[in-house]
Amino acid sequence: MKKVLIIGGTGMVASRFVDLAKDKLEIVSVDEKTLDIIDNTAVEKYFTKNKFDAVINFAAFTNVDAAEKETGDETGLTYRLNVLGPKNLAEYCNDNNTFLVHISTDFVFPGTEEEPGPYDEDARLPETPVGIGWYGWTKNRAELMIQNTSTNYAIVRYGYPFRAAPFDLKKDWARNLINLYNEQKLYPMFTDQVQSVLFVDDLVEPLVKIINEEISGIFHVASSDMTTPHEIGLYLLGKYTGKPVELQKGSMGEFLKAPGRTPRPRLGGLKTLKTQNILNLKFKTWRAMVDEFVSQLNT
Ligand SMILES: NC(=O)c1ccc[n+]([C@@H]2O[C@H](COP(=O)([O-])OP(=O)(O)OC[C@H]3O[C@@H](n4cnc5c(N)ncnc54)[C@H](OP(=O)(O)O)[C@@H]3O)[C@@H](O)[C@H]2O)c1
C-alpha cells in the first residue's frame, strides 16, 4: 500500500476522502497545527522525520470573497497558503522523488464570454488575471509554479464539490441549498451559469488510481456533463422532498455586474473525457451524483 500524506486533511473535501480511502492507501492526515506548509523550515523539518510515497495537497484558502479583499497582496494569507505553501511542497517532492498531487479548481479559468468553458484538461492556463478573482488567480499561479518546478506531479481540478456525510465546519452548496429551501429563504437560482459538480465520494477512485500508478498530468474529476444552478437545484430539491418544486430564476450575468462582486466563472465547467480515458474510468452524470447524494442523506 502506498504511504500518502494528506495536507489539509481536516477540510471539507479531504476529510471525506480520508474516510473513504483509508483502506486503499496508508494515510497520514495532517492539519495546519501539525504541518504549516507556509513555513518552509517546518516543511523541511517534517519531511526529515517523515517519508511518503506521495503527498496530496488539499490545503488552501478557500473563502473566495475573503480572498478577494487581499487582491494583489503577495504577503496576504491567500497568496502565501495557495502559492507559497504549494511551492514549498513542490520543491521538497521534486528533490526527494515524491509524487505530488495538487488539488485545484475550475476557478483558475475566467469563464467569461471572451474565454468561455467548459474547459478541457489541455486548455491554456490564463496568463493574466483578467476576469479571475484573487482566489482563482492564486490557484492559477500555483498550478503554473508546480508545472515549472515538478517532474512527477498530478494537478487534479474539480468544481462545486458536495458531500452527504455531515461536516459541521463548512456548508457546501448542496447543504446550503437544502437549508435555505427548508427555511424558505432560497434566493433566485442562476439559469445562465454553466458548471460541473463533484460528489466528493466520486473523487476517491480516480485519486487512488492516480497515486497508485503515479500518473502525471492535469486531471479533471467532475460530473461527466454540465448543468446550471437552477437546473441542479430543481432536480436535487425534487429528489430530496419527493415532490416537484419551483425555484425562482436568476441571472449570474446580472449578479456579477453589481459593484463589489467577486469575479467567478459564469461560463465554467470542466470537461472530463481525457481524464476518463487515461484512468479508464467512467464518471457519473450530475444527476447520478445527486441521486447518490440524496440516497445517502436518506439512509
Ligand atoms: N470547496 C470548494 O468549493 C472547492 C471547489 C474547487 C476546488 N476546491 C479545492 O479543494 C481543496 C479543498 O477545499 P475545501 O473547501 O475542502 O477546503 P477547506 O475545508 O477550506 O479546508 C482547508 C484545509 O487547509 C488546511 N490549512 C489551512 N492553512 C494551512 C496551512 N498553513 N498549512 C497546512 N494546512 C492548512 C486547513 O487546516 P486547519 O483546519 O487546521 O486550518 C483545512 O484542513 C482546496 O485546494 C480547494 O482549492 C474547493
From TrEMBL:
UniProt pathway annotation: Carbohydrate biosynthesis; dTDP-L-rhamnose biosynthesis
GO terms for MF: dTDP-4-dehydrorhamnose reductase activity
Enzyme class name: oxidoreductase
GO biological process: dTDP-rhamnose biosynthetic process
Keyword annotations: NADP, Oxidoreductase
One Pfam family recorded for the sequence: RmlD_sub_bind
Protein biosynthesis is among the record's keywords: no
GO cellular component, one term: cytosol
EC number per UniProt: 1.1.1.133
Residues in RmlD-like substrate binding domain copies: 3-297
Gene3D superfamilies: NAD(P)-binding Rossmann-like Domain, UDP-galactose 4-epimerase, domain 1
Domain of life from the UniProt record: Bacteria
Role, per record: Catalyzes the reduction of dTDP-6-deoxy-L-lyxo-4-hexulose to yield dTDP-L-rhamnose.
Family per similarity comment: Belongs to the dTDP-4-dehydrorhamnose reductase family.
Protein name: dTDP-4-dehydrorhamnose reductase
Record organism: Candidatus Woesebacteria bacterium GW2011_GWB1_39_10
